[in-house]
Each structure stands twice: as structure tokens, then as C-alpha cells.
User: Fold this.
Amino acid sequence: MSAVDQIIDQGVMWNVSAESWQELTLGVGQRLIELGLCDERYPDAMVQNVVKNGPYLVIAPGLALLHARPDEGATKNGLVMGTSANSIEFGHSTNDPVTLFIGLTATGDMEHLDMLQEVAQMLAAPGALDGLRSATSESDFVAKLRALA
Assistant:
């Protein structure tokens, strides 16, 4: 299954309301739990990843890749993607504020790298991020995702 198919199958998170990067991250983590992709430890591990390592996971202008290590509660490989209702500051010097996010779970280091590579290829298409940011509804967002497949 492609990254786009996984995201569409496992859920787009449209217009998520959050006041901070911690709240956004925990909300994405909760969705990952609901989908059976991780256990209850994973959302807190995602937050601690930022606390410990800084905002490196803001990987492109306006895009955060929220994740933790496989051994911190991931139970299946999975992806969700969405938009935030407001701009979120993670503290990244050039890529803040965040309005798009991806939540990722991987059960091993190789799976983690494979999924990251597939996401990077998907989003490397010219205009991909701007297209997703310009979506005006969840269905529009899904249509723009499908176009990246």
C-alpha cells in the first residue's frame, strides 16, 4: 500500500484545533492509538522526542513529521496526515509555523526509514505542499493527496 493510500485509509485529520505543539502532537498520538497503530506510551514519547531532540521533525516549511522510536509503543506501521486549524510554533528557526502534519508509526528501524523515504518522495513533487495547504475542505485535501500517488 502506498503512503497516500495508507493516509487515506487510516484517516485524514482535517482542521485539528490545537493551541500548542504539545497539544497537536498528543492529538495525533491519540488518533494513532484509536487506529491500533500504537499503545498509550507512544503519544508521550512523541512529545518527549521534541523535548529531547528539538524541532528537527519540522522537516519542511509548515510541515511536521510527528513520530517516536519504534520501541516506544508502535504496534503497526501506519501514517495519518492532516491540517491544523491554526499555525503552530515548534521552535524551528526556518520551517515554523506548522499547518500540515504527518503522524507516523513504524515497528522497526528499517520500516521507519522505508516509510520516511516514501513520504519524502510523495511530498517532493513540485507544488505538493502548497497544494495540500490550499485545500478548502477534507474532501479537497483527500483529492490533492490522491493526485500525489
About this structure: The two ends are 11 Å apart (CA to CA). Strands lie at 12-16, 58-60, 63-66, 78-88, 98-105. The mean pLDDT is 92. Helices lie at 3-10, 21-34, 41-53, 109-123, 128-133, 138-147.
